Amino acid sequence: MSTVSLKELCDTLEKVGIRPTHQRLEILKYLAEHRVHPTAEMIYSSLKTEIPTFSKTTVYNTLKLLEKKGVISALATVEDQIRYEANLTPHGHFKCIQCGRLFDFELTGVLPPRTEIDGHQVLECQVMVKGICRQCRSVTAK
Amino acid sequence: MSTVSLKELCDTLEKVGIRPTHQRLEILKYLAEHRVHPTAEMIYSSLKTEIPTFSKTTVYNTLKLLEKKGVISALATVEDQIRYEANLTPHGHFKCIQCGRLFDFELTGVLPPRTEIDGHQVLECQVMVKGICRQCRSVTAK
DNA sequence: ATCATTGCAAACACTTTGCATACGC
DNA sequence: GCGTATGCAAAGTGTTTGCAATGAT
Question: Which of A5, A80, A92, B90 has CA 20 to 30 A from B113's CA?
């Protein structure tokens, strides 16, 4: 987790026409700094301590807005809630079925970019790979 | 939608140690015949008319059981409920953002099979591609 | 008789909506 | 002052759980 400058995030929001309010900046900052694909709940409970009047409605409103404007993206796994991320470079997601964590991985070489499949126009591509992560493998091997 | 023989489905269930009850066979039959990736709700409301005492609990129980035994698989999209399918050959999913339908497509050539990514052990891979489907494209083009 | 299956009803968890208050330009 | 942003509370939706009734061996 690295620290991200508020100025930078401010610019990001203004570029897409979103007013950079305190709550919105904090939510986006949280996503930029916590690359574990947090859920709305995780964002809420983390920021609730910093902003006492903070509400879940604002989290949901903001996530929806940021997603619509293309600042963040949403991904779903079968087992749990919708997760969000601010990493918009093309990448795949690896989900460990043991510890539940989500990792990003490079798609380069794995999946060549496509603009069309079976006559359907491709706009977006999500790759969700499941298995046992490096850490869990070494624990089991012990 | 093609008709699938009950005998065949019966064998499928017995092979994995699931008692082939009437409800279970009907649910699996529905999935085998309706390749549109139905939700639990879709299965329930369709079979409710045939089996008047049919309950949603049974749908959820059965889907969970079939998934655990590897007879069907579950997939998630961000926008709506969990969807299920009986097609277990490796394939990708194309979701049309206009009409909402899900299509299967061949993964061969798109994604070479992998057993490991970044040191994580790969067990399963889901590819969800979003865009505009062939039909919606031609409608828009008119 | 025993154990698995079914199904109703209630509980649950995540998300959305309605509406009133507060804030920024 | 006006429109947007915020936040509480209530409602909505999909799914799970508790438990009693039924069914199969």
Answer: A80
Please write the tens of the pLDDT for every residue from A59-84: 999 999 999 999 999 998 877 788 99
Q: What is the largest CA-CA distance in chain A?
A: 53
Residue A113 contacts B, CB cutoff 8 Å? no
**Would the CB atoms of B118 and A105 count as touching at under 8 Å?**
yes
Q: For B6-84, which CATH class?
A: mainly alpha
- Are B6-84 and B89-141 equal in CATH topology? no
Contacts for B141 with CB less than 8 Å, ≥ 6 apart: none
Parallel, antiparallel, or unpaired: how do β-strands A83-85 and A73-75 relate? antiparallel
- Report pTM: 0.85
Does any strand C atom come closer than 7 Å to the Cβ of B30?
no
Q: Can you read off the two tokens belonging to residue B84?
A: 């299920």
The CATH number of A89-141, from 1.20.120, 3.30.1490, 1.20.1740, 1.20.930, is: 3.30.1490
* Residue A21 CB in 7 A reach of strand D: yes
Chain A 62-91, CB < 7 Å to strand D: 62
pLDDT (tens digit, 9 = 90+) per residue, A113-125? 678 889 999 988 8
What is the residue extent of each domain of chain B? 6-84, 89-141
